[in-house]
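Hi, here's the filled form for the chain we discussed.

Project: internal
Contact: R.S.
Residues: 412
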Amino acid sequence: MTKFYIPSRFLAFLAFAFFNAFIFTVLRIIFYFVNAPEQIVSAKLVLRAFLVGARFDLRIAFLFALPLGILFLLPYKKRRKKIFSIIYALAFAVVTVIYFIDFGYYAYLKERLNAYIIELASNTLTSLEMVWQTYPVLKGFFALCIIAALYYFFVSKLFVWAYSRTSPKKHYWYALPALLIAAAFVHGRVSQYPLRWSNAYFSSDNFVSSLALNPVQNLFDTYTFAKKGSGFNKEETRKYYDIVADYLGVTDKDKERLNFVRNIPPARGGVKNYNVVIILTESLSYDKTSFAIGEIDTTPNAFALAKRGVLFENFFTPTTGTARGVFTSVTGLPDTSAAKTSSRNPTIVNQHSLINDLKGYNKFYFIGGSTNWGNVRGLLQHTIEGLKIFEEGTYEGQNRTDVWGISDLDMF
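And the returned structure, exactly as it came back:
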């Protein structure tokens, strides 16, 4: 009877990945106890944040382990072991520095570390002076050296153990299951869409969302937006301030402070609590409807509904693209993101929405596909308090609909 053989290199690969994930989880626990707010946070939300965060940690850990897994396919070489142990020790030191900076960044700004810190590089000397005066740099450096040395020792021993069990035959079958396990943890979800930063913003509580994030992942997710910048030009805005302020109806004009605030007094008395249903018709372009074309009645049914109801003539989304339209519909702000769309930017998901002023209402969002598309989940759940989302996987007997909403056929 042939004995089933599990190569030690396969076990070493898994042990390495899970060991790193365990370290990241410990750092998350420390983050929680160091930064937990004074007000009581729901234990249910905290537990969910840890579970989402654990999936981010496992993703980073398995990505970190992939080069080692590939290396394990090669024969053992003492020199190769030494070189890769040094490389991994240095790489882990970099990850440790990211966590160190993240702790300080959050203590100062109440935000997890993001790529906008790159902007500080323009004032390098000033930034370095601030760090030197504020943080125990020398103690941190010595601690980092000790951590790197211990990690070097760990990887070296793991190498020796990985090649310790030999077999008369070369066993490379483990490469496929190792790759599949790594791919599963990197994907992070049993779904078409992978785990994304928006999954961390399942609550409107900023601390809960921060607790769920991973600083390494957050640096990557915000890099594109930090690199391209906001696209905001203060002088150009001042140049056209009067025109825009008049159009918006700003009463307290201030070109220096660029004030665009509009104070509109609420209605008093006799207000009925209507059921409010908003249908976002993404394919219905305003400039092709009866509202915009007076002489041609292109959309008579929609126009009839408008005449019998209330038509908000000053509301529109200024750009094409569904994600931009959803952002504007929820926040009332034009999506002017210079990179991709605003719903994809983790740093601006915390927005004010008129929807939150509807007190005593149950709030629902229905979509045929997944709110992970365009990362609109983060905007919706972090901005709208108590929102319950219905999406693919939550409808009984639903065929998968890979769209933002539902098809026109199903709708009508």
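Let me know if anything looks off before we file it.
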